[in-house]
Amino acid sequence: MKPLKVGLLGFGTVGSGVWNVLQRNQGEISRRAGREIVITHVAARAADGSLERARAQCGGATVLDDAAKIVRDPEIDIVCELIGGTTVARTLVLEAIAHGKHVVTANKALLANCGTEIFAAAHGKGVAVAFEAAVAGGIPIIKALREGLSANRIEWIAGIINGTSNFILSTMRETGASFAEVLKEAQRLGYAEADPTFDVEGIDAAHKLTIMAAIAFGIPMQFDKAYAEGITKLTREDIRYAEELGYRIKLLGITRRVEGQGIELRVHPTLIPEKRLIANVEGAMNAVLVKGDAVGPTLYYGAGAGSEPTASAVIADLVDVTRMHTADPEHRVPHLAFQPDQLSAIPILPISEVYTSYYLRLRVLDQPGVLADITRILADQVISIEAFLQREATHGEDEVDITILTHLAIEKNVQAALAKIEALTSVRGKGVLIRMEGLL
Amino acid sequence: MKPLKVGLLGFGTVGSGVWNVLQRNQGEISRRAGREIVITHVAARAADGSLERARAQCGGATVLDDAAKIVRDPEIDIVCELIGGTTVARTLVLEAIAHGKHVVTANKALLANCGTEIFAAAHGKGVAVAFEAAVAGGIPIIKALREGLSANRIEWIAGIINGTSNFILSTMRETGASFAEVLKEAQRLGYAEADPTFDVEGIDAAHKLTIMAAIAFGIPMQFDKAYAEGITKLTREDIRYAEELGYRIKLLGITRRVEGQGIELRVHPTLIPEKRLIANVEGAMNAVLVKGDAVGPTLYYGAGAGSEPTASAVIADLVDVTRMHTADPEHRVPHLAFQPDQLSAIPILPISEVYTSYYLRLRVLDQPGVLADITRILADQVISIEAFLQREATHGEDEVDITILTHLAIEKNVQAALAKIEALTSVRGKGVLIRMEGLL
Questions:
Q1: What is the least distance, in Å, from the CA of A297 to any CA of chain B?
Q2: Quick one: A176 and A260 in the same domain?
Q3: Do both A56 and A8 map to the same domain?
Q4: Residue A250 and residue A163: Cα distance in Å, rounded?
C-alpha cells in the first residue's frame, strides 16, 4: 500500500521532534498504522534558522519556505500544522481543509479562538482535524475525554496544564525563592520563554481548558468567556502559609458543570489538599483530573510540553487518521494495537532471567561474623549492596532482622545466593525476597 | 436512525451497572455516539438470583435465562459478555462472532487465555472485539496504549491493577495489621471475595498484564508464561522496614522490553520509592505507569473495579463500536466528542458566580478588635470560616499576617467582603485572595 504523505508546516521544537520520532520508530509505527507514514514536505522559515535546520535534518523530504504550496499540493494527504498563533496558521489550516486534506495540529490558541470555524469547515469537506497535542502535550487526554469516558456525564475537570507555571510554583515551594527569581532561573533553563506572559498569566492554560470544556460538556469553544488569572502575584509567604495549613498551591484550569446554571471555566492559582495525587505533580509535568458520574475520579499524568512528548501526540493523531483511511472500519484499530500480521515472536523471559534490585530480609543470630558470611555469598554471585538495615526481631531474643537492598542483579544469582545464605547455621528459617523497582 | 441493539450476557455487579449508566446517561451518550444504544435483551441465571433482579430492573428489555439465544438473535448488533470465566463465556463469544456480531467484554481471564483464538475469529468475520473494561476498570488504559501512545516504542509498563491487593496492602501499612486480619476485613467490606485466590495470588493482575503486554509490544497473549506471585506471604515487618528505607510495597504488574533478549512479564510485590506518584495510590484504586521512548513516563489513575467504573469502560466500547458503524470515517469521532448538531447552549458562568472556598491573607495592625471587624464583615456576606492562622509579618513590627480559610461561598460576596475589609483602617494594603478546591 502507498505510504500516507504528510506535509509538515513549521520546523521548531515540535516539528523537529515529529521528524525524529517518526524516523526512529518508523517500523513500529507502520506495524501499528497498517501503512507507512512519510513526511514528504517540510515548510520552515529562513528568518529563525528553521529552514536551514530542516534542510540539514530532513533528508528525503522537500524542504521549502512556502507553506502555502504544501497545503495545495495534491500529493499530500495530511497537513501537520506546527506553526502556532492564530493568523498565518488559521489561513493555512482553512486552506488545507478547503483542499480536502486532513489536518493535525498542536495549536491550542488557534482551536480555542477559531475552533468553531475550523471544525465547521472540516465537517463540510469531510476531513478530520486532530489535535491531541494541543492539550497537555503527550498525555492522551483528548482521546480519554472524547472516547474513553464517553459513558459519563462529566462533572468537572481540574488540570495542571501549564508546565512553566508548575515548574515555577514547585521551585518556589522547594527553595523559598520569589516568583521573579524563579522565573529568571526557568528562563535560563529553557522552561520559560523570554516573554513568559502566555504561560504565567494563565492564558495558555485557558486555551487548553477551553478545548477540554468543549469536549467534556459538548459546548462550542468560548475562550473569550474564560477567566484567567496567573501566578505572577503569588508570594513565598502564601506558599508557606498554605503549606502550614496542609495545602499546595497549583495553577489549575477548572471547568465544572453547575446543575441548572452553567459551566465554570476558570484558570487561577488554587490551594489543594497536599494528600491529593495531583498536589504532588512537580516540575514541568502536567496532570488532568477528570470526574465522571460513572467512573468517579480519573487522573492522567505526563509531560505536557517538549519536543518528543508533543511529537508523541502529533504522531498518534497521524496514526489515527491513517488507520481511519486504510482498514475497513472493523479493523481500524487492531485488537492488539499492531496489525494482526505484524505480531512479534520476541520471547517472554522466565523470572530467573530478570534483572532488578532486591530487598532481602534475613533473621540471623546476633553474633559476630554473620554479616561477613552473608556479604561474601552475595559478592560471589556478583550482587552488590545498596543499603542495609538491622532491627531487633519481634521473636527470639538472640535474633535480629537484617534487611539488605541490592543494586541491579539477575534473579537466578539472587535466588542461588539466598539458598546458600539460608543454609548458614547462623540464619534462621527462610529469607524474604521482594523485588524493587525505581520506576524512572 | 435505528438504535443500535445490545444483548447483555450476565447481570451481576457490572451488568447491572451497564444497565443503570446507560439508562441514566442515555441522552448524553446518544449525543456522543450519534445514535441511540439500547439493551434489548438480557441473559441472567435463576441460580444466583440475577434473573430475578434483571426482571425487576430491566423494564423494556427481554430478560431470559438462555444466553445462547441472544448470541444467535439476528436482531442484535452487539453482544456484551459480562459472565466471566473461560468456559461458557468462550463458547458464547465465539458463537456471537460466528453470527457476525461485535463483542464487548470485560473478561480478562478469557482474553489472556483465549485471546489469540478470539481475535482470529473476529478478524475472519470482520467484527470487533472491544475490551477496555478488561484492564483497570474505568481507566481508559487500553485506548491509551493502543491509540494514544502509538508513536512510541513502549519501554515498560508497571501497574497497580488489582484493587483488592492494593486495598489490603494500603490497610496493612496504615494499621500495622497482618495480611490475614486485613483480608478478613476486606471480605467483610466487599473488597475481597469469599475465595480471594485470583486477587491475592496475583493471577487477576497477571491476566491484565498479559493483555497490556500484548498491546504494548505487539506480541500474542501468553498468560502461560507470566510469572505471578501474590501478597499472601507479606508481613507487617517487611512493610515497616520498607517504609523505614523510604519505600512502599505494592503488588505491581511489570512488563518490560529487554533489548535483544525478550519481554519480562511478571506480577509480584514490589518496593518502590515513596516519592513516586504511583507509590501513593491507596485503597482499591488502580494506576498504570507507561514509559514510552518519546512521551517519557505517563500515568493513568482511577477506579479499577466496581459496578459503575467498569460499566463506564463497557459503554465507552459500545460507543466506539456505534460510532464506527454510524458515521462516515471522517466523522467517526466528532471533533468535540458530541455530534456537531448536538452541541449545548448552556452558558459559561462569570467568575463572580462561582462557588468555591477561599484563602484570604490580610496584613493587619496587631491590636485588639481587628479580627472582630473582619469576621463580622465575612459573616454579613454569609461567608463562614473553616480555619485561621496568624503569623508575624516579615515587614513592619506592629503588623501581623492573618490567613483565613473559608467554607464554600459565592465569589461576588467574597470580593465584596474583601473590599470592605481592605477599607478598614487596621488593615494594611491589599488582601490576598486565592481560591481553594477539595477535588473530591
A1: 6
A2: yes
A3: yes
A4: 11
pLDDT tens for A160-215 read 999 999 999 999 999 999 999 999 999 999 899 999 999 999 999 999 999 999 99
Q: Which of A14, A116, A150 to mutate to test the interface with B (most CBs of B within 10 A)?
A: A150
Which pLDDT score, from 0 to 100, does residue A336 have? Answer: 87
CB A391 within 8 A of CB A326: no
Sign of CA dihedral B116, B122, B123, B127: negative
Reported as half-sphere exposure (CB side, CA atoms, 13 A), residue A289 has a value of: 20
Domain count, chain A: 3
Question: Would you call A100 an interface residue with chain B, using a CB distance cutoff of 8 Å?
Answer: no
Which grid cell sits at A87?
493568523
B318-329 confidence digits (pLDDT tens): 999 998 877 666
A396, three cell numbers: 527470639
Give me the DSSP letters along A49-93.
THHHHHHHH-TTSEEES-HHHHHH-TT-SEEEE---SSSHHHHHH
pLDDT digits (tens, 9 = 90+) for B298-317: 999 999 999 999 999 999 99
What average pLDDT does this structure show over A285-294? 98
Is any Cβ of chain A less than 8 angstroms from the Cβ of B127?
yes
User: ipTM greater than 0.85, yes or no?
Assistant: yes
pLDDT-based confidence at A330, cuts 50/70/90?
A: low
Q: Which of B208, B225, B275, B412 is catalytic?
A: B208
The C-alpha of B196 sits at a distance from chain A's nearest C-alpha, in angstroms, of: 21
CATH of the domain at B408: 3.30.70.260
Which chain A residues are Cβ-neighbours of B347 within 8 angstroms? Answer: 262-263
Could you say which of B128, B151, B214 has the minimum Cβ distance to residue A21? Answer: B151
With contact defined as beta carbons under 8 Å apart, do B130 and B106 qualify?
A: no
Q: Which is catalytic among the residues A208, A233, A250, A412?
A: A208
- Measured between beta carbons, the chain A residues lying within 8 angstroms of B148 are 132, 140, 143-144, 313, 316
Is A2 strand, coil or helix?
coil
Q: Domain limits at A42?
A: 4-137+308-342
Contact at CB, B123 and A353, closer than 8 angstroms: no
In B, which residues are within 8 Å of A126 by CB distance? 328, 330-331
Q: How far apart are CA A30 and CA A109, in angstroms?
A: 31
Q: Are B41 and B100 within one domain?
A: yes
Let me know if A208 is a catalytic residue: yes
